[in-house]
Amino acid sequence: MTVRWISGYGLGNSSHKKLISDIQGWLASFDQATVEYCPRGSNSYADILAKKGVDSSREELVWSDV
Between the CA of residue 34 and those of 19, 37, 41, what are the distances in Å? Predict the structure, then answer.
């Protein structure tokens, strides 16, 4: 749903409108940028990083940890 909001389809949650607008502005500053939905399980590195971020109290993640 968030990818659709950022891509300009739908209005989004009213509490997130400012953030969505900021992201759209930031993306517009690039010559080429795309936002795509990628199921979490299909990207193993992103999945590992997300889990480490949620489970870790450390403020730093080193690539050798992955």
Answer: 17, 10, 20
Q: Is the pLDDT of residue 30 over 80?
A: yes
Number of Cβ within 10 Å of residue 36's Cβ equals 6
Phi–psi pair at 34, nearest 5 degrees:
-130, 155
DSSP single-letter state for residue 1: -
Structure tokens at 63: 């690539």
The answer, yes or no, to whether residue 52 has pLDDT greater than 70, is yes
- Helix extents (H) in 1-66: 2-6, 17-28, 44-55
Pick the closest to residue 24 from 42, 41, 38, 9 (CA basis). 9
Report the pLDDT averaged over residues 28-48. 79
Tell me the C-alpha distance between 18 and 32, whole Å: 22
pTM: 0.51
